[in-house]
Design a protein that fits this description.
It is a single chain. This protein has 101 residues and is mainly α. The protein is 93% helix and 0% strand. The protein starts with 5 loop residues before the first helix and ends with a helix. It has 2 helices and no strands. It is elongated, with a radius of gyration of 35 Å.
Length: 101
């Protein structure tokens, strides 16, 4: 090429070859990474679905437990109001003691 010294042109071409080689290596790494991800994804998806199902069941169980607790609390409050109020006052005192301590 006229106007460009051969040394500058050679340096530029060498630099571009090095960059192309780096990009090829990166592409290889990314391809391997993508293959590994694709292989693991189905297993992890199944695991995630199983965990979500377990958490949903736990949530339902907790809702059931707390509903029963509320029902028992209401029942005992109506059947034994004096004892219930006494126990509630003890609980309030415990909370106050924790705040002070």
């Amino acid at each position: 090429m006229p106007g460009l010294p051969a040394l500058d042109l050679s340096k530029t071409l060498d630099s571009q070859r090095e960059q192309v080689e780096i990009y090829r290596q990166l592409l290889e790494i990314l391809a391997h990474s993508e293959q590994a991800s694709a292989a693991i994804f189905p297993e992890l998806s199944k695991s995630l679905v199983a965990h979500i199902d377990t958490l949903s069941k736990l949530k339902e169980d907790l809702h059931g437990v707390f509903s029963r607790i509320r029902a028992l609390k209401t029942h005992y409050q109506s059947e034994y109001p004096d004892a219930f109020d006494y126990v509630q006052s003890l609980h309030v005192k415990e909370l106050d003691d924790e705040d002070d301590g």
